[in-house]
Every structure is written in C-alpha cells, then in structure tokens.
Fold this sequence. Notes:
The protein has 227 residues and is of the alpha/beta class. It is built from 8 helices and 9 strands. It has helices spanning 2-10, 30-40, 53-61, 109-113, 123-134, 150-158, 168-176, 206-219, and strands at residues 15-22, 44-51, 67-71, 81-96, 118-120, 145-147, 164-167, 180-182, 190-199. The strands form 2 sheets. Strands 1, 2, 3, 4, 7, 8 and 9 form a 7-stranded mixed beta sheet that branches. A two-stranded parallel sheet has the order 5-6. α2 (30-40) packs across α8. The protein starts with a helix and ends in an 8-residue tail after the last helix. The relative contact order is 0.22. The mean pLDDT is 88.
Amino acid sequence: xxxxxxxxxxxxxxxxxxxxxxxxxxxxxxxxxxxxxxxxxxxxxxxxxxxxxxxxxxxxxxxxxxxxxxxxxxxxxxxxxxxxxxxxxxxxxxxxxxxxxxxxxxxxxxxxxxxxxxxxxxxxxxxxxxxxxxxxxxxxxxxxxxxxxxxxxxxxxxxxxxxxxxxxxxxxxxxxxxxxxxxxxxxxxxxxxxxxxxxxxxxxxxxxxxxxxxxxxxxxxxxxxxx
Length: 227
C-alpha cells in the first residue's frame, strides 16, 4: 500500500493542489473543472483561491498557487509565466431593464457620465473605462462604487441604480429573463482572451497536468473557443 501511495503521489493522483480562479469564472466553469477532476483523480485534494488578476498573479509567482484560470488584461506578459488562451470573454456595459438608458440606441460615454457607475476595482478596468471617456474628450469621474465583488455589482445593476461593466456569461439568464440589458454602444462587446496561466514547465508538478487537462476539456465546450 505504501508503494502504491508513493506511485500515486508521483503521478499527481494523490496529495493536494493549490489553484486560483478569477472571480468571473468562480462559478462555472470552475465547478465543472472540479467535477471532472473528481472523476479522473478522486484522491487529489484541490484548494481553490478566488481573486482578481493582479492578486492571483502574485500568488502564482510566490508559489501560493500552482495554476490559474483567469482573464488576460490587455498587454499582459511575463517571461516566467505561460499564458494559454482557451476562450474569448465578451463584456458589456449593462443596466437594469427599468434604467433610463435601457432602451436608448447608440449610448455614448457622455450618457454614462450622467449616471452612477459601479466598477470592479482593478487597474486595467479603470484604464479601459478612462480611455473610453478620453476618446470622447471626457474625464472619467470617480465611480460611485468600486468593489472586488462581481455578485455585488450584479445586484447593484438589478437595483436599477447603477451602470456596470460585466462579462456576459455571468448575466446570461438575467438578460434572457429581461432583468438586465446590455447597452447599445459602439465598440461593444469588449473582447478579452481568457484561459490558463501557469509557471514554467520546469516548476510544474504532475498534479498540475491533471488540472490543465480538465480545464482544457471544460473550456472546449464553451460557445466561443479561441483558435
């Protein structure tokens, strides 16, 4: 039995694995990845940390986690890390169905400036939104609310008081049911590659491969897969 345990550990089939997941993927597909891992390596214990890109990258570099499922902010690169795009995420400015902008065609950044913004408190999101305002010779006012909670942002939009920028896969049912409306804005949806982020091959344990294989398989079933 001891020999069997050692062999299983060496193959990454036993022991533990620490991974990170961006907040936008913390429901699905992460749940599907964990279910697939349970089916293929049932004795491997998985510890999952949810967070946003900047914090997760720090955790990966300091070996607090060994792999990430995350979006890739524009221009991000790191020679010590491997970025494997698997899907393209679409994001929209969204409001509740009762919001004054919900039925307006050709919404501009000037229109948004007249309403309360609630945004994710991440640097790359602030830069994106500031650039959109600057393109119309406007200045981005400080958002009414900044948070690291996508659940809170979704609730604030539904409350009819706020405009937010959120990925469409998190809002699919809300949009179908008519509770949330993507704004009709030129240049949207915003598209961003997402997938796996790993440390260099020389530092990867066999257990990481099981996680990678499960993630690839789950993302392959998503509607839009990167070429």
